[in-house]
Design a protein that fits this description.
binds zinc ion, two-stranded antiparallel ribbon
Length: 145
């Protein structure tokens, strides 16, 4: 059974509306996006940042993704060595792995949490690092809606 991450789904709709609404640039004084704008590719770099719609859209659709054979960094937790599980990405479409922060984030919450006044925490302001209980944290985050 698929659990819908409702809050994220709603913010996604907001975002689509926003993009459509700002599409008619000819009649506004809004400056066009510079061709030289450096678009972020790592979701971890967006934490705490104010990004342009262009940058947000780029992060949502073209953020860096680890390949199937990517060697995730390990973390020692207790007496065991743990690491991020690639399958979590396919089972949670809202999840994005940050190479720079060495953990995973909810991409919707990272990009839009300020606008929806969400209670922040792991997966939003800090990456998922508790890999031993990773599946539990992911299920918990989906229930936030
Ligand atoms: Zn979220």
């Amino acid at each position: 059974m698929v659990v819908i991450h409702l809050l994220c789904f709603q913010t996604h709709l907001f975002f689509i509306c926003d993009v459509k609404g700002s599409g008619d640039t000819q009649h506004t004084a809004k400056p066009s996006v510079s061709a030289l704008e450096i678009l972020p590719t790592d979701i971890g770099d967006a934490v705490g940042q104010t990004l342009s719609n262009n940058a947000k859209n780029h992060l949502l659709t073209k953020h860096w993704k680890p390949s199937e054979s990517f060697n995730f960094p390990t973390r020692k937790q207790g007496s065991k060595v743990r690491k991020f599980q690639h399958r979590w990405l396919s089972s949670h479409p809202w999840l994005a792995y940050s190479k720079n922060k060495q953990g995973a984030f909810c991409k919707w919450c990272v990009l839009f949490a300020k606008e929806v006044d969400l209670e922040l925490g792991q997966l939003v302001t800090s990456p998922l690092h508790e890999f031993a209980k990773g599946a539990d944290y992911l299920a918990e985050h989906e229930k936030l809606a």
